[in-house]
Amino acid sequence: MRRVTKKLLIFVLGLLFTFIYCEFLVYYVVAGQCSWPTIEQPHNDSEVLKAFILADTHLLGPRKGHWLDKWRREWQMHQAFEAIMMIHKPDVVFVLGDLFDEGEWSNDIQFKDYVDRFHRLFPIPDETLMYVVAGNHDIGFHNNIRMGSDRRFTKQLNSTAVQFITLKDSHFVMINSMAMEGDSCSLCTKARNEIIKVGGVLKCSENPDFCYEGIKKVRYSRPILMQHFPLYRKSDETCTEPDAPPLSIRNKPFRLKIDALSKEATDYLVSRLKPRVVFGGHTHHGCLQHHEYRTSESSSLPLNFYEYSVPSFSWRNRPDPKYMLVTITPSSYSVNKCGLPKETTIAVTAVIMIVVVLWFSIRPKRFGR
Q1: Cα separation, 111 vs 156, whole angstroms
Q2: Structure confidence by residue, pLDDT tens digits, 253-292
Q3: Which of 66, 209, 211, 232 is at a distance of 20 to 30 A from 314, taking alpha carbons?
């Protein structure tokens, strides 16, 4: 009887540990395998900014998806986010749009619940900052933005069409991609005016000859551009990252202003802001693009920068969600792309652990001579 009780205890404790590992600890184990990239150039440690970048969480709303799928995906993202925050302790978190899956169709009460749920799932400590940009699932594509949907996103998530943020002398410009349509709507007009102002501040900081009375003075550093859409490109054909889109869709032509910014909007942003690096989401896949532009002000020296497409953070969109850890100084940056555990890996691990537990629970005791 005592032997049966002992085996039952081993079985129960083994199952409990399997559950704890697969539902909690695995996220810490995987997050701990990634680290902050280092800056090779000489720098002042006080200027180093550690940024955690994620995109496309797509929290389900009241209309789509099964409640069990909704609960499961949110649990996974919450545990992964908590593990990343605890292990890596970033200074700032950037979320690059499509926070919600049904934001554009939600009424005000549902949207308020969405925002509250987002903050519950992705909590940050008081010393950490968080900035978000709107995605098409949050407020709708440009031609489908309902009256008030952009306004409530701006108000409840403190995210205007253009945000100019300076952290440790590094500048960030966060853009609402739907405001880059290029027409005369109020959203687009307001965004263009703000971009002109930001461009003026940056030009003044680079060359005092362009300063005027009352303009904001900052230390010059080429800004980091963040938005939901990728910059102009015809397709993902040139994407060769391991997490790039499958070959079956990689060559599919992009619908401009839906899958990526138009060439006109891209040229406008690049000429006004002269970014040193660009981060975006939207495609749910990884991509690294090198851009070379010749602006009217620097026709002799081309403007070179890289653009990173951040894969989705949700298991609903890909089997291997990703995020980025970026170390930033005013003159340099370094990017490390990190993965989250695959569901298949978790399932196989659980099966192996259960088999081991069963073996220890039912194996016959061997008697020595």
Answers
A1: 9
A2: 999 999 999 999 999 999 999 999 999 999 999 999 999 9
A3: 232
pLDDT band for 41, please (50, 70, 90 cuts): confident
Terminal CA-CA length for the chain: 23
CA dihedral 18, 24, 27, 33 (to 10 degrees): -70
Write the single-letter amino acid at 60.
L
DSSP string of 123-153, one letter each residue: ---TT-EEEEE--HHHH--GGGPPTTHHHHH
Number of H helices, E strands in the chain: 10, 11
Dist. CA 125–CA 149, nearest whole Å: 28
Distance between CA atoms of residues 15 and 31, nearest Å: 23
Q: What is the greatest pairwise CA distance in the chain?
A: 96
Q: Are 28 and 86 in contact (CB under 8 A)?
A: yes
Residue in this structure with the two tokens 């942003």, named with its chain if needed? 269
pLDDT for 298: 53
219, two tokens: 């230390």
pLDDT given for residue 300 in this prediction:
63
Section 112-140 average pLDDT: 97
The strand pair at 224-227 and 170-175 is best described as: parallel
Contact (CB, 8 A) for 186 and 142: no
Check residue 177 and report its DSSP letter: G
CATH of 40-341, one of 3.40.228.10, 3.10.350.10, 3.60.21.10, 3.90.1150.10: 3.60.21.10
Domain residue spans of the chain: 40-341
- DSSP annotation of 22: I
Instruction: Compute the distance between CA of residue 172 and CA of residue 261 in angstroms, rounded to an integer.
Output: 19
8 A C-beta contact, residue 306 and residue 277: yes
pLDDT band at residue 60 under the 50/70/90 scheme: very high
Task: Round to whole Å and give the CA distance between 329 and 331.
Answer: 5
